[in-house]
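re: that chain from earlier
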Amino acid sequence: MTAVFIGFGVLIFLILVVRMPIAFAMGIVGFFGFAILQGLGFDNISEFRWTAPLTLAANRVIETAQEYSLSVVPLFILMGNFVTRAGLSHELYHAAYTFLGHRRGGLAMSTVVACGGFSAICGSSLATSATMAKVALPPMRKFGYADSLATASIAAGGTLGILIPPSVILVIYGLLTETSIRELFAAGFIPGVLGIALYVLAVRWVVRQNPDAGPAGEKSDWNERVNALKGIWGVLLLFTVVMGGIYLGIFTPTEAAGIGAGGAFLIALFRK
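^ sequence. v structure.
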């Protein structure tokens, strides 16, 4: 039990004080902790045998790298990167802005809706927050939005990445618990949409209490709205193909991730 507390203390020290990445900190603590728990002492360093911990670490790395199901994670993230490079994140934000931008707090509401749309083709909260920060933060500052509301809308919208399918976290959870990923995606869709609605209402409540926090933008006519919707055809097509194929049983989530990444790459080429 003492070794456990010591290992936990060293882990916290490496993460909070040394600022070491969590993965490397856990790897170091696990490696040396396993060696010590196996009775391999440091009394005579020349006799210290590294066979057991090295074998365990090597097997873990090889097994993880060869895990076919885990390839879905980088593929979904790659799909999101292709979509970002294609400029579809800007199109999502612009489409949401044409419908909501003329209201108080409309840009913050548009940010939340755009985050939800981007989450549907990315699956990563970090990628969603990072992308929408570049897209939405400059316009909100230009219109005089309070930094608290602007950054909060981006941070809150970014959390939708772990709810709205295809979610990387849901994929990892399904693999670890041997739960149907298709059912997890179905279970995460309604909470994701509900989260968008509640975040929009939260923005509405904030600007009602403090109108200066989110000034209204320019109102768009219906021609502009229709043209803006035409710009997000790639997002709708990708989401329909990927999620429709999974729900209909045409292909597995891993195959869907590969098809989505390939489709995003073709869209990026089409948009030059």
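The chain has a mean pLDDT of 81.
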